[in-house]
Amino acid sequence: MTTSAHSTSTFTTAHSKDNNHSDTLDALIVGAGFAGIYMLYKLLNLGLKVQVIEEGSGVGGTWYWNRYPGARCDVESMEYSYSFSKELLQDWTWSHRYSTQAEIMEYANHVVDTFGLRPYIKFNTKARSAHYDEARKEWEIKTDAGDLYRAHYNIMATGTLSSVNRPRFEGLDSFKGEWYLTGRWPKEGVDFSGKRVGIIGTGSSAVQATPVIAEQAGHLTVFQRTANYSIPARNEPLGAEEIDDIKANYPGIWARATKSRVGMGFIELGTKGALEATPEERELEFSKRWAKGGAGFGAAYTDILSNEAANETAAEYVKAKIREIVRDPITAKILSPEITLGCKRMCIDSGYYEAFNRDNVDLVDVGSAPIQRLVADGIQTTDGEYQLDIIVFAMGFDALTGALNAIDIRGRSGMALRDKWADGPRTYLGLASEGFPNMFTITGPGSPSVLSNVLRSIEHHVDWITDCITFIKNSECSEIEANFTAEDEWTQHVEDVAKDTLRYKCDSWYVGANIPGKKRVFLPYSGGLPVYREKCQDVVSKGYEGFVVS
Ligand code: N01
Fold this sequence. Notes:
Helices cover 31% and strands 16% of the residues. The chain is of the alpha/beta class. The protein folds into two domains: 25-163 and 399-549, 3-Layer(bba) Sandwich (FAD/NAD(P)-binding domain); 172-393, no CATH class. The strands form five sheets. Strands 1, 2, 3, 4, 5, 6, 17 and 18 form an eight-stranded mixed β-sheet that branches. β14 (378-381) and β15 form a beta hairpin. α1 runs parallel beside α14 (454-474) and α14 packs parallel to α16 (529-541). The longest helix is centred in the last third of the chain and has 21 residues, at 454-474. The chain is globular, with a radius of gyration of 23 Å. The chain starts with 23 loop residues before the first strand and ends with a strand. 3-acetylpyridine adenine dinucleotide binds next to α5.
């Protein structure tokens, strides 16, 4: 039990600690983020022998590493929460509409300690390889710490946005100042006071970090390659009445989330196309959503992500807001996106555009004058040199496949997952891949994952995997594996559904375009959570159709 001010009680779990990694485990889980934590909870409650290994020294996954200034949730905290335990929902109280990274970490630790999960997690332990031993029908997992685990099931809870896109700039070693990655932020924090700071990137991480660093630094230069859209969060403390109301209505909220394409019960989804509304109606609707803040802005109309003209109406609204907020017209113009709204994930900010009105903040357009190299004193672009003491790289992640491909995963006949996925990930439902029996990927490529409130997708996958393992156990079988045809059809389906969305055409991490050399493939499933859940349920109802159970 933590000493968290958010928590008022302890409740129970029914399992005992009995893990020794020299014995064969029922399951080895890689990663102690939100997926790994819940998977551990479920499997322990099945009475299985389970071990989690985690690279960090604490739980929280991507939240553990992304402790950059301003890091916050951009899904409302009251629903960026586990829904599996009624007691937990009542026991925990979030302080703000969008909570800080620190509070999310408190929550993750609270869950782990409340359910007695910590003894089953080995920290500072990075998975190096996972090889399937066909004769023993077991996975052999080796770690950087020199451990060897054998496990019947190998469950990858490695996260979707966890493998950092590291800077590859020429001259990085010659830079005399300090540099940091938002996705690997030092625990002790960074002192920006009086410093000349540069931040590279203008995605969600940079959009959150910029206003906070601007307040601390002597001077901040934002290096923007592509302008993206950002919607104000309108973050504020949650009132007692609002909290009580939400807590009393959780069943309804989860029911709505289950029916929502994006797994969010709080977001009011528009019911008609943008072009069906008059310009006055649209202005009213966008203004209402802009004033409310958050991701609901993009859900104003049904066709914003499928129809260029509809998209343009929302995009124009945001660009007008940028012109209204940012006093310098040249800066406002550079900040105005030329891309389709939502094709790169929209950002949610607290004072991002306003930060450019500060005297100590400059914007540099490295889209038109690219960064050439880092030099001893800063950054050199084709336009000139910028003198810096600190550089912050907010350049995102090798999304969905990066963390899996970083591990030497080998299935039948020594086949390497990264070779099999060289032309893009091939999965069945984003949960499994042919040739890799008894291996599951929580929120893997080909599942809704990042196109939803990821907590809902995690819970869905973990519940599905738990039911599947129970089925295998009860049927006295020992292996489950996706079959080639089912995987082929699903992989094609993921691509086909994506083609109908505007996101398909744009260069973003959704298609791997942010990583040099990464094959361009639409990574998550864009058919929506309800359709996806139905498909997963259908597979089960038909006796795990598309899987070979032996
Ligand atoms: O990463 P990004 P992020 N030279 O990939 C730029 C989630 N998230 O960490 O667009 C110059 O979005 C790149 O430019 P461009 C959320 O899902 C959630 O910010 O490729 N610039 C871009 O501007 C989000 O979508 C929260 O031209 C370079 C930036 O770096 C996802 O994580 C908070 C460059 C990268 O933006 C990723 O967000 C934070 C180069 N060589 C993140 N290389 C929540 O609040 C890259 N860039 C929950």
